[in-house]
């Protein structure tokens, strides 16, 4: 575990014992959370707060140098870590925030309903709008600076999915039967455009990270599959060095494409990319 995470030695020791690993986890299941809370004599929220420096250690922030960590907690007391990820080139808007990273991490693990989000800094307006897309946003508790807030307190007079008539806001991704690449694209949450898009990072024949498109009613806090993929790679303790190629899978009737975004990144990182449409014609 890296130097900036050495301060909380009791936490590090307990984690290494419970997980039988020295690697920082990107999630804790219910049993692991329970064992750690017993070992450290703390609540789940206190555990999440203590783990924030570990979450922030996954950050890649070459532009801002501001490392943000966030941890989403679900009803089963599972913890999902997230950190900000910034593209090294291009506009400043090419960044995924820690809250988005933690929420995608939770959704990709088929988390139960999220109950809490713990962050090492106040959530920006962009993230508040993104969180508002969650089906249970009104019940979510958000904790930062040693204070807990009911999410609606943080976004009064909000604009949300209901305003555009969406009856099933962001909850679980349909991944139960997902096995082929198009299945992961079909799991995209895009009630406003119906766009289906998934990206994969391959090492040899093995998928080492994947992402799909998550949309927001206000569009700008929508999740770019590319940034989500890179965030997932980092959370899996991997880097571009581990990637042999990228794949993008999109429905042939999509109204817009992420091809250019991935192509730019593939050229920048000198990795090959393959673009597939489905269903094949
Ligand atoms: Zn943010």
From TrEMBL:
Q: Which Pfam families match?
A: dCMP_cyt_deam_1, dCMP_cyt_deam_2
Q: Which CDD domains match?
A: cytidine_deaminase
Keyword list (alphabetical) reads: Hydrolase, Metal-binding, Zinc
Q: What GO molecular function terms would the record report?
A: cytidine deaminase activity
Positions of the CMP/dCMP-type deaminase domain: 43-162
Q: What is its EC number?
A: 3.5.4.5
Q: What is the top EC class of this enzyme, as a single word?
A: hydrolase
UniProt-listed InterPro entries: APOBEC/CMP_deaminase_Zn-bd, CMP_dCMP_dom, Cyd/dCyd_deaminase_Zn-bd, Cyt/Deoxycyt_deaminase, Cytidine_deaminase-like
Q: Which family does it belong to?
A: Belongs to the cytidine and deoxycytidylate deaminase family.
Task: State how it assembles.
Answer: Homodimer.
Protein name (record): Cytidine deaminase
Please name the source species.
Agarivorans aestuarii
């Amino acid at each position: 575990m890296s130097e900036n995470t050495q301060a909380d030695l009791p936490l590090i020791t307990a984690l290494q014992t419970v997980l039988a690993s020295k690697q920082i986890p990107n999630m804790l299941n219910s049993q692991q959370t329970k064992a750690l809370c017993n070992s450290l004599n703390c609540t789940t929220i206190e555990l999440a707060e203590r783990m924030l420096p570990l979450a922030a250690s996954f950050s890649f922030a070459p532009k801002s140098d501001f490392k943000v960590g966030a941890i989403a907690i679900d009803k089963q007391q599972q913890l999902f870590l997230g950190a900000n990820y910034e593209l090294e080139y291009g506009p400043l808007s090419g960044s995924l925030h820690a809250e988005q990273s933690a929420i995608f991490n939770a959704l990709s693990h088929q988390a139960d309903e999220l109950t809490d989000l713990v962050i090492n800094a106040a959530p920006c307006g962009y993230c508040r709008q993104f969180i508002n897309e969650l089906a249970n946003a009104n019940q979510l508790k958000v904790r930062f600076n040693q204070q807990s807030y009911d999410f609606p307190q943080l976004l009064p007079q909000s604009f949300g999915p209901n305003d555009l008539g969406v009856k099933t806001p962001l909850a679980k991704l349909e991944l139960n039967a997902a096995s082929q690449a198009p299945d992961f694209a079909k799991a995209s949450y895009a009630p406003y455009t119906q766009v289906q898009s998934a990206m994969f990072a391959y090492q040899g024949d093995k998928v080492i990270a994947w992402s799909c498109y998550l949309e927001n009613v206000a569009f700008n806090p929508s999740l770019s599959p590319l940034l989500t993929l890179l965030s997932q790679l980092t959370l899996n303790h991997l880097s571009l060095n581990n990637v042999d190629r990228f794949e993008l899978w999109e429905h042939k009737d999509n109204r817009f494409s992420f091809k250019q975004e991935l192509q730019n990144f593939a050229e920048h990182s000198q990795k090959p990319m393959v673009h597939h449409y489905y269903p094949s014609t």
